[in-house]
Structure formats: structure tokens, C-alpha cells
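FAQ

Q: What does a record look like?
A: Structure on top, sequence underneath. For example:
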């Protein structure tokens, strides 16, 4: 897979013609609805050209991590992204995680004043791939009103949430840390009696600029073991807090997400 890191396109909604870069058909913010608690449920609606893909929040060692800047949004107190379950792409022994053809990415927004509209302004950088992978920059705007009727497209994207560790039957999780010349090696051991053969373990660090290798996976009866290297920008060993880690078990039919990993 080849990567070109110097191509950017700028999209503005809603402001006339859509100047789509190669690989993207349309991109917009869906206004969604306001739930009974006063929170807004909106979404990024990204439609790619046939056979193109884009990346999950943790794209894998060969992927381009998405970045979101909400500066300029109005009447926003808190905002969070609800990532749908991705699929794994394997090419030349490199694994990445993402979505084929389209992505509906729900956005949960708590307004400062729930009686007033919310204006979202998003500057988004994400990678899209076909034969080559390129980053594109999108500038999207949208106004979230007080509508209460659910958007079925967004609701469908919310219908398959990641399970918590206890809900998935995780009986134990530990992370062992070993310093290496340019960072840290983390060995995660997950006790999961109903582990599936297609389960894949993904480790994330709170700092998205720390590079994380593809895991070396071992499957034992009732246990998944994943070994990854974490390399910061200065390529030096560093102090690691277990609360900075997120462990995701990704399979074809489920995703399990565990915040934090107790260190040994």
C-alpha cells in the first residue's frame, strides 16, 4: 500500500457547490435529533466512491489517524464521537481498521443551553484509500435544532455498540510493560472464555501521536495475548499509566471495549 502525504482538499457545507476530491462522493453533517435529556445526536455522513475506504479512530500501524477540530462551534458544552464497529483490512501483512464505501459517525453533543440551536464547525483530517492512501481535509458546518424525531440512518449506526468487558464475559485483563530502545513493549493478557478465532486485539493510547505496532497475537484456551510496541515522537522509553490505554477486542460479529489496563 502506497501513501501520499501531501494532498488536501477543502470542503465547505452548506455553501454552494461541493468540490469533492477523488475518492469522496459527498460529506455532510446530519443534524439528527435532540433526545429526552436535551442532548443532540448528530452524525458525520461520509460517502466514498466505489472500492474506497477510510479509517477507524485507531487505524493500525499503516493507517492515517483521523483528527477532529471543533473550534468555532457554538453552544457546545461537551462533544463525543461514537465510532461504529470497523472491519479489518489486511494488505502485505499490514493490518488496518476502517470502513468500506461509507461511514455514518454519530456525534453526541451536550449544549450549553439546550433550548437554543447548536452550531457545529468541524475541521476534519482523515485518510482515504484505494490503490494509494491520501489524507483529505474537510471543513463542515451544520446547525442542530430541537427536532425530536430520530434519524433512522444515525439510529442504525448506534444499534451495534461496543460491549463492555463484563458484558462480553471478560474475566481478567492485565498489561505487562517492558522498556525497549525506542519506547515500550506492552503485553496484554485478556481472559475471555468465549474468545472467537477471529477476535483481534487493538491497543490504543490516549495520545494519538504515539505509534503502535500491529499486535503479535497468541490465542490460548480462554485467553487472548497481544504484544505491541508503543513508540513516541522522541523514540524514547516513557512513563505509562494504565488508564491511558484502551483495549478493544474486534471480531466479525462484535466489538468489546475496555477503558484502562491494570499494569503488572
Amino acid at each position: 500500500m502506497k501513501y501520499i502525504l501531501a494532498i488536501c482538499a477543502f470542503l465547505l457545507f452548506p455553501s454552494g457547490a461541493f468540490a469533492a476530491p477523488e475518492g469522496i462522493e459527498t460529506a455532510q453533517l446530519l443534524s439528527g435529533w435532540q433526545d429526552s435529556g436535551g442532548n443532540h445526536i448528530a452524525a458525520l455522513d461520509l460517502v466514498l466512491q466505489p472500492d474506497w475506504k477510510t479509517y477507524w479512530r485507531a487505524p493500525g500501524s499503516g493507517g492515517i489517524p483521523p483528527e477532529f477540530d471543533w473550534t468555532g462551534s457554538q453552544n457546545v458544552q461537551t462533544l463525543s464521537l461514537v465510532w461504529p464497529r470497523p472491519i479489518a483490512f489486511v494488505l502485505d501483512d499490514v493490518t488496518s481498521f476502517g470502513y468500506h464505501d461509507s461511514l455514518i459517525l454519530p456525534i453526541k453533543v451536550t449544549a450549553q443551553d439546550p433550548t437554543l440551536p447548536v452550531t457545529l464547525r468541524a475541521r476534519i483530517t482523515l485518510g482515504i484509500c484505494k490503490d494509494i492512501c491520501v489524507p483529505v481535509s474537510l471543513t463542515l458546518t451544520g446547525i442542530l435544532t430541537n427536532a425530536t424525531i430520530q434519524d433512522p440512518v444515525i439510529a442504525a449506526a448506534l444499534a451495534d455498540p461496543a460491549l463492555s468487558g463484563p458484558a462480553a464475559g471478560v474475566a481478567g485483563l492485565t498489561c505487562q510493560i517492558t522498556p525497549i530502545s525506542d519506547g515500550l513493549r506492552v503485553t496484554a493478557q485478556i481472559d475471555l472464555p468465549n474468545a472467537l478465532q477471529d477476535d483481534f486485539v487493538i491497543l490504543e493510547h490516549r495520545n494519538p501521536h504515539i505509534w503502535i505496532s500491529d499486535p503479535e497475537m497468541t490465542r490460548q484456551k480462554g485467553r487472548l495475548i497481544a504484544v505491541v510496541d508503543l513508540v513516541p515522537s522522541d523514540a524514547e522509553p516513557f512513563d505509562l499509566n494504565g488508564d491511558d490505554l484502551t483495549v478493544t477486542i474486534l471480531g466479525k460479529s462484535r466489538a468489546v471495549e475496555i477503558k484502562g489496563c491494570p499494569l503488572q
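Q: Is there anything notable about this one?
A: The first helix runs from residue 152 to 157.
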